[in-house]
Amino acid sequence: MNETIKTILNHRSIRSFEDKKLTDEQIETIVKSAQAAATSSFVQAYTIIGVTDRDKKEKLAEAAGHQRYVVENGHFFVFCLDLHRHELAAEMEGLDKKDIIESIESTEMFMVGCIDAALAAENAVNAAESMGLGICFIGALRNNLNEVTKILKTPDRVIPLFGLCVGYPAKITGQKQRLPFENIYHKEEYIQDDEVLKDQLKQYNNDIIDYYKERTGGRRADRWTEQMAQKVSHPTRMYMKDFLKNKGLPLN
Amino acid sequence: MNETIKTILNHRSIRSFEDKKLTDEQIETIVKSAQAAATSSFVQAYTIIGVTDRDKKEKLAEAAGHQRYVVENGHFFVFCLDLHRHELAAEMEGLDKKDIIESIESTEMFMVGCIDAALAAENAVNAAESMGLGICFIGALRNNLNEVTKILKTPDRVIPLFGLCVGYPAKITGQKQRLPFENIYHKEEYIQDDEVLKDQLKQYNNDIIDYYKERTGGRRADRWTEQMAQKVSHPTRMYMKDFLKNKGLPLN
């Protein structure tokens, strides 16, 4: 197994960092690694904002749900979907707003932006972890994007998708076992038999119960299906559709 | 610079592969690397379909736009957003469909699925490239998802997002220079000055013109802004919104 695959398979989220900032060189390596990712039709539909200002980090943490690691880390990146850049490009080429609005406001371009930004982010993660740094994604930035877009002064058609804390790990956590290989990977076509899929999930539940029991000395014994049922029966961030529309992305 | 960062920075799309299949062990390493990626609230909202059947690959290539490398590669993966698994999980926990529909059908859950799948895919890319393999993303699978979902027999709430050709490179292509660092990476907040951003894009246009001139012996001299203006003034895949709705994802 080579070093890259070892790094990838060793991933875990780190939520406690040493009080040591990343150097400019480290930040540049991480961002350039992000940029090296594939991008749909060369659109590069994302922007990365690096936040070091303490006051700004405190405000972001407050918007996201008061996670201390949003403030206390080596560097805080925010990955944004960015279609504003393409509006500028079109303007530079003499196009009128009305010529581009159908495309820019489409569901397809939104998908392109989400996927482009995430491909870039995972490269940033692998680069950071290969340097001995730890990371934690902050999807909770999406809890309050009205506030986050104000703090980061993003224009319309730029949507902060998630944060990424990077830093020197102060506490290494355990790895959570993923879904069974057979449940994630299907050969030739999607397995249609829900009973087979459910059996795989039952097997997985047992693995996850063991994980929690061991980690908590028997106090927790959650099933994965229980966690997921809990999650999907409590809708979150239902403001998203209207928020995106207000920011110039009605997803037509 | 470590091996992982070298691998990442050396990425380029490969569109011509040797006639040599990936081994089961290689496929397993790639999929397990994908699974090691971070996932929002542990939802793991994706499924990977591996296609080797020649007839099926021909049909997928036809749906995507007749790219030969969709058929001729070492292995063809399709990364799908998958919220069907969470419906099953909720059913196993005794929930009724009506208890979960608001969450499952939300824009937020769709974003989670797109991001989860792309994070996993970029790990697959890094694992494959670290083993000396080449890759090419096939976003064009989204040209005709009605056909693709039939070929892959995906149920409702499973959306093929993109394909990934992996194989032994037969022809190594050049790297296309990315947007200027300062255009992608903003410090503390989004740079509000569009004139500054436009100047950066002008500088980038010159770099890209040089790239095309060199690669084509002077026959092509495209600007990046020209390519983007062309793209956003020609809307594509405008069926997406209705398609997603028909597949149980109205993005509420």
TrEMBL record, chains A, B:
InterPro entries: Flavin_OxRdtase_Frp, Nitroreductase, Nitroreductase-like. Residues 8-168 form the Nitroreductase domain. Gene3D superfamilies: NADH Oxidase (3.40.109.10). It comes from the Bacteria. Keywords: Flavoprotein, FMN, NADP, Oxidoreductase. NCBIfam families: PRK10765.1. Belongs to the flavin oxidoreductase frp family. This is Oxygen-insensitive NADPH nitroreductase. It comes from Scopulibacillus cellulosilyticus. The gene is nfsA.
